[in-house]
Amino acid sequence: MVRAVDGVSLSIDRGETLGVVGESGCGKTVTARSVLKLIDMPPGRFEAGQILWQGRDLIPLDEAEMNKIRAREIAIIFQEPMTSLNPVYTVGDQIAEVIELHQKLSRKQAMVGAADMLKLVNIPNPERRVHDYPHQFSGGMRQRVMIAMALSCQPKLLIADEPTTALDVTIQAQILELMQEMKERFGMAIMLITHAMGVVAETTQRVVVMYAGKVVEEAPVEALFGDPRHPYTQGLIRSIPRVDRSAGRQARLESIPGTVPSLLDPPPGCRFAARCKYVMPACTQAIPPLKEVAPGHKVACIL
Q1: DSSP 3-state assignment of 108?
Q2: Are the C-beta atoms of 163 and 143 separated by less than 8 Å?
Q3: What average pLDDT score do residues 159-175 get?
Q4: Portion of the chain with pLDDT greater than 70, in percent
C-alpha cells in the first residue's frame, strides 16, 4: 500500500492561478486526478478527507453525479497530449462529444461549437481541421486541442497537469499565454501543476511545494521566490539557470543530493531529512507540521 498523497490540504480562490510544484513522483498528478475522482478504484481509494467544491463534498458522489461536474464545472488538461487524444476519432468528434454531453446540443451544433473552440485557441482553418485526426497535428497544436476540449463548457476551475511537457520553449510560451488569455476571458481559476519554477514565477499568484506526498511550503509567489523557507524549496530555486550570473564565467547548476524516499516505506520524521544539509536529530523523530510563519506563508520545517 502506497500513500501517494498524504494529508495534502490546499485551496483555490475564484480567478486565481495556484502553482503546484515538486519533483516527479511527489504526488502532484495524483492530487489533481483526486479532485475529479479520476483515480482507478480499485486499486486506489480515498482513506479520509474531503474534496470541497463550492461547499459541496465530492467524495460521496457517484460516477453519474461526478460526470455532471467534470468538464462542465471543473476541467482538466492531461499531462501528455500525444496520448490523451484518441487516435481513431477526429479532434472535432472528441471536442463535440463534451459539448453534446453537457450543453444538450445536436451533433451538428456541437461540431460548430468544436470549430469555434479551435478558432478560439488560434488553430488556423478550424472549419476544416475539425475533421482531422490527432496524428495530423503537431505537439503544440495537440496541446491547443486539449485546451479547447477543456474549455468547451467554460468551466470555473481548470486543472492543467504539466501542460507544456515535451514542447519547445517558444510553444511553451504560447500555451501559457493562451491559458492566461482564456482565464481572463472566462474568469476561471487555474491549478497549474509543473516542475518548472520559471513557469511558476511567471504565471501564478500562489504556490504549493510538494515533496514525497506532502506539502512542505505554501506562499504567495513573490514571498516564495524572495524568501523561501524550506530547504527543499531553496534547493529548487537554486537549481534554476541564472542568465545574469553566468555571463563571463561558467557556473554549475546546483543539485539536491540524494533521491526521493520510497513511499512504500517512508522514513520517520521529515521526509526530506536524508537530503537536507540542515538536518538535526529532531528532524527524524516527528513529522514537522505545516505552520504559518508569515501572512499566507506556511512551511513544514522545525527551523
Answers
A1: helix
A2: yes
A3: 83
A4: 97
**Sequence-distant (≥ 6) Cβ neighbours of residue 13 within 8 angstroms:** 189
CA distance to 83, 197, 232, 237, 248, per residue, from 88 (Å): 12, 36, 44, 42, 53
Q: HSE (CB half, 13 Å, CA atoms) of 3?
A: 12
Residue 297 and residue 223 in contact, taking contact as beta carbons nearer than 8 Å: yes
Q: pLDDT digit string (tens) for 192-215?
A: 998 888 889 889 999 999 999 999
What does 139-178 look like in DSSP terms, one character per residue? HHHHHHHHHHHHHTT--SEEEEESTTTT--HHHHHHHHHH
Mean per-residue pLDDT of the chain: 89
Residue with cell 496520448: 83
Backbone angles phi, psi at 284, to 5 degrees: -95, 5
Cell of 169: 520553449
Lookup result for grid cell 564565467: 249
